[in-house]
Automatic annotation (TrEMBL):
Swiss-Prot/TrEMBL catalytic activity: a 2'-deoxyribonucleoside 5'-diphosphate + [thioredoxin]-disulfide + H2O = a ribonucleoside 5'-diphosphate + [thioredoxin]-dithiol
EC category name: oxidoreductase
Function text: Provides the precursors necessary for DNA synthesis. Catalyzes the biosynthesis of deoxyribonucleotides from the corresponding ribonucleotides.
SUPFAM superfamilies in UniProt: PFL-like glycyl radical enzymes, R1 subunit of ribonucleotide reductase, N-terminal domain
Protein's recorded name: Ribonucleoside-diphosphate reductase
GO terms, molecular function: ribonucleoside-diphosphate reductase activity, thioredoxin disulfide as acceptor
Alphabetized UniProt keyword annotations: Allosteric enzyme, ATP-binding, Deoxyribonucleotide synthesis, Disulfide bond, Nucleotide-binding, Oxidoreductase
EC number per UniProt: 1.17.4.1
Gene3D superfamilies per the UniProt record, alphabetical: 1.10.1650.20, 3.20.70.20
NCBIfam families: NrdE_NrdA (TIGR02506), RNR_1b_NrdE (TIGR04170)
Similarity remark: Belongs to the ribonucleoside diphosphate reductase large chain family.
Protein encoded by which gene: nrdE
Ranges of residues in domain Ribonucleotide reductase large subunit: 558-580
Amino acid sequence: MSLKDLKNVTYYDLNNEINIPKNGKIQLNKDAEALEAFLKENVKANLKTFSSLRERIDFLIENDYIESEFINKYNFSFIEKLYEYLKNQNFHFKSFMAAYKFYAQYALKTNDNNYYLEQFIDRVAMNALYFANGNEELAMNLADEIVHQRYQPATPSFLNAGRKRRGEFVSCFLIQTTDNMNTIGRTINSALQLSRIGGGVGINLSNLRAAGDPIKHIEGAASGVVPVMKLLEDSFSYSNQLGQRQGAGVVYLSVFHPDIIDFLAAKKENADEKIRVKTLSLGITVPDKFYELCKNNDDMYLFSPYDVEAIYGKPFSYVDITKEYDNMVNNQDIKKTTIKARELETEISKLQQESGYPYIINIDTANKVNPIDGKIVMSNLCSEIMQVQTPSTVDNQQNYSELGTDVSCNLGSTNIVNLMDSPDFGKSVDAMVRALTFVSDNSNIDVVPSIQHGNHLAHSIGLGGMGLHSFLAKNQIEYGSKEAIEFTGVYFMLLNYWTLKTSNEIAKERKETFHNFENSKYADGSYFDKYIQQNWAPKNSKVQELFKNIFIPEQKDWEQLKENVMQYGLYNQNRLAVAPNGSISYINDTTASLHPIISRIEERYEAKTGKIYYPAPYLSNKTIPYYKSAYDTDMRKVIDTYAAAQKHVDQSMSLTLFMRSTIKDNLYEWKNGRTDKMTTRDLTILRNYAHYKGIKSLYYVRTYTDDNQEVGVNECESCSI
């Protein structure tokens, strides 16, 4: 019996019984029964077996399932030693969902999809051997981290490591266009190419001239950004990996761009089909000045990017609007229009209610704390990547006359529950940084030279975290409490310290730093001031207990790290980012990212199989009170949690807001005496609160409606770690 002929299996029915209470209690035992049945009826029955490891590896190489080059970097006796170690760890999935997800989406199968060719420890071995690049010590360390699920490579990395016929290891890309037809054409081509190889693509359109702006040498006017959005959406729809997945992209526009109203209107359900974008995601970059104008209920000027670039000699995105706003208002050579700032603020909230868009990028917040010389102008498909970019110029032959820098994302995540149990926190993080650095070093996206160029100069990575709510519930700590927020801050402080330390070691070993390191705040030491001037060790007794076996760097340790970085530099320009890590969190038997769970028993619809139920990790009578749904949580607690991490994360985090159409009593004090329905005012208040707390980006707004539907749910597979 092959995978295509599975009949009379029991695991779906057993799993579905989780959702049927018995004597008023959740039948958690049914999940264990479903897992056991799945492994017996599905996996064991359809796993191709071999008489020896050598026979298996030879078969996989000879039949073009895995590459031979990375295998040949090791003595086979070492590979046998690594496998023996992995077997001795006695890995077991803890839930039916974890096993189902792994075997459905990640396990290598025969070409006819009839049989499995690997189990979990085989995929761990492929990742460890591939990303260690022949370094036996690092291979053992990585195997240790991944099999104990302290580290989870991003989906493209974990899935493709070692495979002969594979996609790229990187998760997603950021590109920008400048204000000419050649660059627009190159951007559309780049979107096609990047979508083809599997990544989600973020595109900055803020530099394009607005509708009505003049076109040089032609008697006419520009059509604005919306037609370019339509071209990009069609490109993503066409370049869909032979129908295997929908191409995914997000376009960003400055809130001060004259086309901002049309940009937002293109996502509305009732928009004219000629301008409506159905699958393209929208994001806006928001300078501090916008919040100030809204607060004062002032008129707001929108500025012609064409004129601004002519006056300032650089693309619109690279002009500091908050700083230059009054000068631009008073400059008669810059065409401008006015709207009410609060009317635009309301339009943003209306669209977020309706669709979950736009993402919000607090661009001044990001740049104020950016230690790298240069300017952040946008983000990616999931809003967690923020790196400096420089614009490119393309000639009439579609060649780069000036090659700028764009971004590819090399992501991975720590599993907070398991990393807190690591015998050596620093050693664990060191292995993760080195694995991610290998991905960066070996990423060669030559179809988009600006991305290839940026990656080669920056060596950037993005290590994040998942399972925060799992950890808090397991330790009976309320999400959003003072203890929880302090824990989050200390945890990400440690990630920052150890990623800096390893990046410094790599720079020392290779005698190489990221490009332009000498002009960074790392090089002059000022980045470390906040760590040297303040003690970041936990103060709450419960939080101290959680970290009792983990080294907490003191001010003298930060001082020493500062000296080492100033002397030897850093290899990685960027190091930390928290992605949404959606489906792969199930394989880790943990909660996604840093936000609260949706439901104690999550109902997830899987293609071809229907509904699968997933109990929250570590769910028990003791932990139930600590598992409150995100939809019933004050979003200020989520914002406070992310803000505690953001102080130490050099890039950003995918922060989703969870709302109900009908809001429960006493959740938000400003609702008292008003309607219990979610309003645009609620979203406006929360966006302003996030800005006040130093949040760099807001991802989706997800709304749970009165008819039990979710608005704004569109899981990003590219960045789901």
